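User: Show me a protein chain along with its predicted structure.
Assistant: Here is one chain, sequence first, then structure tokens.
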Amino acid sequence: MRWRIFSLIFSIRLMGLLLSALALWVFAQIADEVLEQETQTFDQSILLAIRQMHTPIGDRIMLGITFLGEPVFLLLICLGIGIRLLYYHRRSQATTLGIAAVGAIGLNYLIKVLFGRARPQLWNRIVDVGQYSFPSGHAMISLVIYGFIGYLIAKRYPRWRAWIFTLTIILIIAIGFSRLYLGVHWPTDVVAGYAAGVVWLMTCILSLEMWRIYRSSGRNSQSD
């Protein structure tokens, strides 16, 4: 029984590492194409196609969805959840959540500055945005924070794991799509944001799991 549990844990971590490697490769490929400006035609065609979907009610819905990916709003969510985790003495989870959030925001800002890609100007936007375009901060940061929160909730309620992950993925995809709908990001910005977010999210999750195993092994050695 113990061997089966160990095998399952090892398989999950291996899949996490492979997923991170794949996401890093995707990000590198997109970054190279963006630097060479070889994605411009593709990006423009996708955005112009999405532009045809605009309606007044769609605008309001997408503004509401994109708000769920605002970094300040996400930080407030992290603060509230972090306080709750500390109240229940889950210090390592609260700390990792904070590192995941701050790290995602800082890393996204650094990459934006390094690439310096201009935002789309294909139509008059209904939202004001600053900074650079690549990668999408909403896509990257929402994936990290909502992904990590979803992971914590799924561990707490394993019976509902499939529903939790499904709803989390839908929310993250909706936020990314809202940035395209509003015309503030190129499609490759959003995909690259997801790819970079996956790498950082898996790093945070795996570090939390390694710390949990380290503490468990320490308790077992003391009891022996």
